[in-house]
Amino acid sequence: MIARDRKFMEAAIAASRKSREDIAGSVPRVGAVAVIDGEIIAEAYREEIAEGQHAEYVLLEKHLPNVSLVKATVYTTLEPCTKRGKEKIPCVERLIARKVHRVVIGMLDPTRLYGGWVSENCALPT
Question: Where do the domains of the chain lie, and which CATH numbers do they carry?
Answer without folding.
Answer: 5-118 (3.40.140.10)
